[in-house]
Amino acid sequence: MIKYKNTEYQCSMELTLNIIGGKWKPIILWYLSSNTLRFGELKKKMPKITQKMLAQQLKSLEENGLVNRFVYNEIPPRVEYSLTYIGKTLIPILENLSEWAHEYINTNKSQCL
Q1: pTM score, whole prediction
Q2: Where is the HTH hxlR-type domain (predicted)?
Q3: CA distance readout (Å), 67 to 31, 33, 111
């Protein structure tokens, strides 16, 4: 049993998937692994995500210490997102997942159109 932020998890995988799992978080982390991006830049890379959902996912990643949010004292406001040190430790894992997807597609070409 693992307790994190007042929630009990059965195992470390459950905790991990709670922090980085879902439809959008891995994709956000993947794009931020390349460089620092503004909200609008992330939105352009992910046209199917709503602004509300992107904001929620970024906030969750920030609260869990994976993403930095830097607000510039400018008008209009400029906000940039980047990976924290701990967020950067996920890059090799994300790369492995990407490689796995390519292998999976090659193995199952008849099912992947």
Answers
A1: 0.88
A2: 11-109
A3: 12, 10, 35
